[in-house]
Specification:
With 195 residues, this protein is α/β, with parallel strands linked by helices. Helix content is 41%, strand content 17%. The protein has a five-stranded mixed beta sheet, with helices on both faces. A hairpin with a 2-residue loop joins β2 and β3. α6 crosses α8 (163-177) and α7 (146-153) packs across α8 (163-177).
Length: 195
């Protein structure tokens, strides 16, 4: 159990991003790429960067946004093949993402399709830090897309809309957003109250 009084430096953090076939897991959209960067004691200890066969058509719009084409997904394993590794990387972590509830919703639905409950890994009320909410609280509602926010905060941004690159950019963005709170020494409670 993670205490809200714990410092960020003292809890494992899993920065997560998914690319998908569309905007709603509840309406049948699927994960096509997952990126996870797990940090412990402030150090990157593991990553995951995988393309996933969604077992459904990919629209030209998604290809245009992500650069992921249907050809890139041919022969890739389906989500089930990666689920154990995903759960291992998330185990015991605070999940962090940019609009993180979107990413968590897809992971929950994908696990549910497999007869698994993601809550068994991250808890029924998973602790999640949303860098989008932190940015909105600090800067207002406009201009908080991940790439724009990274540029605003001076965080190097490599490839937008690719899962691991976005997860790593989110880690840099969080580091800059929490500087006024005390950086990695700030407590989870401080971070949540700032969101």
């Amino acid at each position: 159990m993670i205490s809200l009084l714990s410092r960020l430096l003292d809890v494992p953090l899993a920065f997560v991003d998914v690319e998908t076939t569309g905007a709603s897991a509840d309406f049948g959209d699927r994960v096509i790429e997952i990126g996870i960067a797990r940090y412990e004691a402030g150090q990157l200890v593991a990553t995951m960067d995988e393309l996933i066969d969604p077992a459904r058509a990919l629209s030209p719009t998604i290809t245009r946004i992500t650069g992921i084409s249907a050809d890139m997904l041919v022969g890739r394993p389906r989500f089930a093949a990666f689920a154990p590794r995903i759960r291992a990387l998330l185990d015991g972590c605070v999940v962090v993402g940019h609009n993180v509830l979107f990413d968590i919703s897809f992971l929950r639905v994908e696990h549910k399709r497999l007869g698994c409950d993601l809550a068994e890994v991250v808890g029924p009320r998973a602790l999640a830090i949303d860098t989008l909410q932190l940015a909105r609280r600090r800067f207002g509602r406009g201009g908080n897309g991940l790439s724009m926010l990274a540029t605003r905060l001076g965080v190097p941004c490599t490839t937008a809309h690719r899962a691991l690159a976005d997860a790593m950019t989110t880690a840099g963005v969080l580091a800059r957003l929490i500087e006024p709170l005390g950086g990695w020494g700030s407590s989870l409670a401080d971070v949540f109250s700032a969101a």
